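haha ok so turns out i had the wrong file open the whole time. this is the CORRECT one, sorry everyone. sequence first:
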Amino acid sequence: MQVASMHFKPRAAEKLADPHLREALDGLKRRFVPGRAAVMTELDFEATREAAAAIRSRALDHLDFFLELFERNATWRGAVLDWAETEQDVNAIVTAIARDNGVRKAVKSKSMVSEECALNEAVEAAGIEVVETDLGEYILQLNREAPSHIIAPVIHKTRDQVSDLFAEKHRTSRKSDVNELTCEARERLRPHFLSADMGITGANFLVAETGSTLIVTNEGNGRMATTLPRIHVAITGIEKVVPTLEDVTTLLRLLPRSATGQ
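then structure:
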């Protein structure tokens, strides 16, 4: 992962003068900020946040126990669990799984851990095609860019920029309607879901009592990537483990509201 925080101030000054970026971020402010504020009124936010913090603290205070419990239950249900200390370990494990199972194509749901590990580059170097299927990540992959935001990876681009990109890369007539652009992306991605040998996702939670992984997504690509290919690989950090499904329900009351106001 490339660290660029030391360049924040000069880059911020430069980007403030970019009219396209300003237009894109104005849209973020109009959609995310009021939406998030509105849905927070649907629950006792402070009490729910305190309950969520207690769940996280319990899991971290007994991290070894809950990780071992997760491994035991996941293995009992037929999963294979691999532990990785470094990004090189992650890339080597995923590449080995792909190679050992004759994988030719992998479809991905959005995963920030895989971005940090530069997983795509490692898997592609092994001769395996990798296709990002989250709409934002797909746009970025077409343009060979890194995500700019953990939740909205392509928030720095305007609709006009995406329209130009699709017309160039897909060799189609230029479209400006959001629904038409989304349909065009869906038409391009559907054959990849049907022909992929492996699906790669992150995991928002690892549930210790069930040995299951859970992702939160507002697009259907997550369900497609986890169910259609014959192999599913979930990559996440050990801090994502939670004790029970009941704990997850508490955390899920906060996660989508805090992220995108949903």
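The chain has twelve helices and seven strands.
again sry for the mixup
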